[in-house]
Batch of 3 targets.
Target 1
Amino acid sequence: RDDFDSQPLPDGWTAHIHKDGRRFYANHRTKETSWSDPRTRSSLQLPDGWEQAFDGDGQPYYINHNRQTTQREPPGQSTNHLELAAQSTDTGTVP
């Protein structure tokens, strides 16, 4: 990730650290803020409160900051979180 982090952000974007320690991004041209790194944006549009992240193996997973849960599948393509929690023996979060 260090090599990736050394790549410049797209024009208009800056990186910041939120008071809770999470990194977020601001586009000063569009007045948009995002938890998702604009260098990794794809055609996948995430709902408000969601962020795509990558685990230690470089595999994507998705963070729902509203519910404080994670999942492997993009939002809208996974099993209902209540069903996941019922099937899980841990906290009901992934990974």
Target 2
Amino acid sequence: DAIHAAVKSGVGFAKLNLVTKNHMRGWYLDTAQALAEQEDAENESENLGLYDLALSNLALSMLVQDDYPNALRLLERCLELWRVKYGEEHINTEAVYDVLALVLARGYEYDKALEMRDKALQIKLA
């Protein structure tokens, strides 16, 4: 009861909930990123398994959190891996180019964003 009263009279439950969610989200992304980097260091590009998909999902999570520098870094690595795994003309490679264009545009790198969008469009039209 004392904790309930202290939270209610202090920051309030809504604020406490928001802070807790943000803290847990940050912990999850930091942990996932560390695991991805460790896996990347141990993996050879010919033996990707589901690692490349996990990496792309992590990049999208970073994008949703407006963490553009990390999303960009992870997507660039994902593009490298998917070029090896699928080839330049594959739809998955095209999808990475598309998302890279979005991230670059949000980071005000419009020339690079247009270049990525153009590559995605070329693959889509091929």
Target 3
Amino acid sequence: MLMDTSDMILDTFPGDQAGREYMENLYGEDMDRVLHSVVKLKNAVIGNNKQKFHMMSLGVVARLLEFIQNERAATGLRTESAIVLGSLAKGSQANVKRLVDNGVVPVLLRCLNNPDLKFVEGCLRCLRSIFTSQAAPVDLLYADPGVVPHMLDIVSQSPTTQECVCSILAECCKTSDHQGLLYSNGVIDSLAPLLASKMYKVQMPALRVFCVITYMNEMVSSAVASASVSERPLPDLLVELCLRDKSVEMQMSAAKCLTYMCRANALSSQDTKIVYKALPTLIRMCKKDRTLEERVEGAETLAFLIEVDLELQRIASYSDHLIPTLSEFLRYPSTQTTAMDLKRLDYDMKHSHELKAAALMAFASLGANDEDIRKKIIETENLMDHVVCGLSDPVVRVRLAAVRCLHSLSRSVQQLRTSFQDHAVWKPLMKLLQNADDDMLTVASSTLCNLLLEFSPSKEVRQYRSFLTHLYHSSTFNMN
């Protein structure tokens, strides 16, 4: 018989005295009553950040950890305790930090060896909430070398273990060492079947794992390219996940995975999977009907895909009005709005720098090698004005993207004689050299070097003398 807890929840812990009395119940000898108290706590803190903070302040975490670590305690009590910790982890980032500081993560990782599936699932749900937060203690996952292989061993036990293990691994693969460790422990064979799962909540985190393990990693990308699922090549499955009947999130992630495999030389840039699926999908993600985050991610991934390949740059340049589409990024937020649009306008104002940086990086990749493409970019209405303004943007990421775009466009002899001279781009570039970091200094210096070439009228400007002196003394001097 289910107990009606609605009134109980409303009256739970109205003050410090009641909270202390509750803590006393947790330390009682009647284990049935203790279990009842833990269940009561679970119901009280669900969706209530105030109660979560209050109970954590009273020291409930330490007591719950005692239950979880006590192998003689009833499995139901240990499971409910893990569930409560998982609920606490879904509160504020401060709550997550307190859980980490209390040593929750190592305890839960050790408990994954328990034979009781429900208890393991409770531990995994809590770990997922912690590792997918901004305060994720990633290094703790790798502190014990036995944790990752064990997680891969238990991943197939249930949909919950599949979902949670994949979510944790996707968030905790941050370096090439992490990629190598996952690969050496058989992550591809363990998770590849999940890409064909009928459950979206399993399929999507598994796909994210393949994205993070293939990024700039030739060895892992080659292994993924040669892997199969039920005798079907894994790259073919990724193509299927790019289809328009899939969610936008899934299409984007599948296209990213194909992109990373291409840049890691595991797939040819002329492979039909790249030319006819990954590339068009990313271009489609830049369209106006997509959300802001989707457009930014699509443009950034597109820039990475085509960065070094002339043929892909040419295909992209005349595909689906890409250049005008990207130029719209630079005009956000729109100056025309209504009362109905104010909330959206405020949102765009806060994120417009992400759109600008993404567009400028995409233009930099598009114009890297082909004169006709550069001409098409520069002739786009007001684009050079936006690029020059980007050089003075308060956001460093936008400034660097603007410099990279100018560097790409400055390879054009014709534009050096016309558009660059008309906009006096050397002036904001000179300012960027002051207190610039290595990345900014390298690209800005290379761009200014292009302006100093014999065919550039700008080479006679006296102000370039200080630039030449700076380059002479700079260890990062990089002639293009």
